[in-house]
């Protein structure tokens, strides 16, 4: 009977030793957090555009290189890039080529991140018009494109140097 008691004692001691190794005497949990902050939505565009010389009844154009939208909002909201153009006003302020005679033709955008960007040619730039629209957005993204800006001169346009302001915005 002694051998049975010794065997039982060895089995019981082994089980106690294995159980104490497998289970900690105590435990403590630490909650770890990380934040993905909300960023911003911005647009950049060339500072200037020199359109070619124009004759009355003709047209002039320039290529705008590197218009870019950067979206670091880390969300799923799309965005729309818009343009609006002031009238071309001559050095003599009564000489005007209206913005209604202008066209903005964006090339296909090159996107980065998860986003689908589609461009649309717009005429009559006297009011804000969407020229690129982003959909199917997930997280941070950007898009860059070139565009052609053109204007037609009325047949009765007078000799002058005309200046206008093209404003790019993103919403």
Question: What percentage of the residues does DSSP assign to strands (E)?
Answer: over 45%
| Structural class by secondary-structure content | mainly beta
Overall residue-averaged pLDDT value: 91
Termini gap: 89 Å
Oligomeric grouping of the chains: single chain
Number of helices: 1
User: Which parts are unreliable, with pLDDT below 50 for 5 consecutive residues or more?
Assistant: none
Whole-angstrom Rg: 34 Å
Order of helices and strands: HEEEEEEEEEEE
For the biggest sheet, the summary is: 8 strands, antiparallel
What is the 3D form?
rod-shaped
* Count of distinct strands: 11
Helix content: 10-25%
Explain what the structure shows.
It is a single chain. By secondary structure, this protein is mainly beta. It has one helix spanning 2-22; strands at 41-44, 59-71, 79-85, 88-90, 96-97, 102-106, 110-119, 122-123, 129-152, 162-163, 166-170. The strands form two sheets. Strands 1, 2, 3, 6, 7, 8, 9 and 11 form an eight-stranded antiparallel β-sheet that branches. It has a three-stranded antiparallel β-sheet with strand order 5-4-10, with no helix packed on it. Strand 4 (88-90) and strand 5 (96-97) form a beta hairpin. The longest helix has 21 residues, at 2-22. It is rod-shaped and about 120 Å long. It starts with a helix and ends with a strand.
Summarize the helices and strands and which ones pair or pack.
Blueprint lengths: L1 H21 L18 E4 L14 E13 L7 E7 L2 E3 L5 E2 L4 E5 L3 E10 L2 E2 L5 E24 L9 E2 L2 E5 L1
Antiparallel strand pairs: 1-2, 2-9, 3-9, 3-11, 4-5, 4-10, 6-8, 6-9, 7-9
């Amino acid at each position: 009977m002694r051998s049975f008691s010794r065997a039982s004692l060895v089995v019981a001691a082994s089980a106690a030793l294995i159980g104490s190794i497998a289970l900690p005497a105590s435990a403590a949990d630490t909650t770890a957090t990380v934040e993905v902050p909300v960023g911003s939505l911005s647009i950049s565009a060339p500072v200037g555009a020199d359109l070619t010389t124009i004759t009355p009844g003709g047209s002039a154009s320039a290529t705008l290189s590197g218009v870019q939208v950067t979206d670091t909002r880390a969300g799923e909201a799309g965005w729309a890039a818009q343009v609006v153009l002031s009238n071309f006003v001559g050095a003599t302020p009564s000489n005007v080529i209206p913005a209604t005679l202008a066209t903005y033709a964006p090339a296909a955008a090159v996107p980065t991140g998860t986003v689908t960007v589609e461009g649309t040619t717009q005429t009559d730039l006297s009011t804000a018009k969407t020229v690129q629209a982003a959909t199917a957005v997930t997280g941070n993204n950007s898009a860059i494109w070139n565009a052609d800006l053109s204007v037609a001169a009325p047949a009765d346009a007078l000799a002058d140097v005309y200046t206008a302001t093209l404003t790019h915005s993103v919403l």
